[in-house]
Design a protein that fits this description.
264 residues, alpha/beta, Rossmann fold, 7 strands, 50% helix, binds nicotinamide-adenine-dinucleotide
């Protein structure tokens, strides 16, 4: 793939996986427009990577569209859109599946799902016409659940479904869609919940996730996983759903014992 002079927008680019993807694209010649709630972080990343950055809340559709328009004016038509900003809230302190407050559920829905919808609403057709690449960073939690974080699990499952809709609807017109589903990655997002299920297969560096994603661009592979056991677990869930639920209950019991009464 020739990235030279291509324009890439990366959300959640001030930190972790988004920053690593922005760096990997820039290292291959792309110009980066970096978006994050963390304004100084986004500006620093954008300026260091041959483009610009801004403090934008991706859940604010009007602000996001203003940024997209500014990126196209300053750098050119967008070739890569990486919808990567994401949050989790946990079910604590009670750890019931419905315990997280409504505000936490709404925030997860807005960031983990609607931010991708807003970007696609504005860009899917024009990007398809120039064979653009649209990435939704979901999570292995969207495929296999995340014990102790029902809002994260439910909204990441919705993010997977939205990425599927994008690929099915706009793929024939030329849009190349990828759904990125990592397990544990060593970023600020997992600080304080290291003992959770997401870390059972080990934490990898964000740069490894970026390299895997760019290889998937070459291979035109829709589902991008980062840990060898993720596809196996998804296959097992698909073929023996009840056994999978039983296994997850057992895993939850083990995590609660290991984490002094908490599942993470
Ligand atoms: N770290 C992991 O183990 C892991 C595993 C699977 C999926 N993910 C997903 O990867 C993505 C990146 O997470 P990360 O691990 O790099 O975490 P991170 O916390 O390092 O980065 C997330 C970034 O998103 C930004 N952000 C949050 N809400 C925003 C908003 N409303 N508008 C703009 N920016 C916002 C944050 O400021 C932060 O810089 C997320 O979607 C996350 O759910 C992470």
């Amino acid at each position: 793939m020739d990235y030279s002079g291509k324009v890439a927008v990366v959300t959640g680019a001030a930190s972790g996986i988004g920053k690593a993807i922005a760096e990997a694209l820039h290292a291959r010649g792309a110009k980066i427009a970096a978006v994050d709630l963390n304004r100084s972080g986004a500006e620093a990343v954008g300026e260091a990577l041959g483009g610009f950055g801004a403090g934008v809340d991706v859940t604010d559709e009007a602000a996001l569209v203003r940024f997209i328009n500014a990126a196209e004016r300053r750098l050119g038509p967008i070739d890569y859109y990486i919808s990567n900003a994401g949050i989790g809230v946990t079910d604590g302190p009670g750890w019931g599946a419905g315990d997280a407050p409504n505000a936490g559920w709404q925030a997860c829905w807005d960031v983990n799902v609607m931010a991708s919808v807003y970007a696609a609403r504005h860009l899917a057709r024009s990007m398809a016409s120039r064979d653009g690449v649209f990435v939704v960073t979901a999570s292995a939690a969207g495929l296999l659940n995340m014990i102790g974080d029902a809002p994260y699990s439910a909204t990441k499952a919705a993010a997977v479904a939205f990425a599927e809709s994008l690929a099915i609807t706009h793929g024939d017109d030329g849009l190349q869609v990828h759904c990125l589903c990592p397990e544990g990655v060593d970023t600020p997002l997992v600080k304080g919940i290291e003992g959770g299920a997401q870390g059972l297969s080990g934490y990898i560096d964000a740069s490894e996730v970026a390299d895997t994603l760019l290889q998937a661009f070459e291979d035109r592979r829709f589902l991008v996983t980062t840990h060898p056991n993720t596809p196996q677990s998804v296959a097992m869930k698909g073929s023996e759903y009840d056994r999978w639920v039983g296994g997850m209950r057992k895993l939850r019991r083990m995590l609660i014992e290991a984490n002094n009464g908490r599942p993470m």
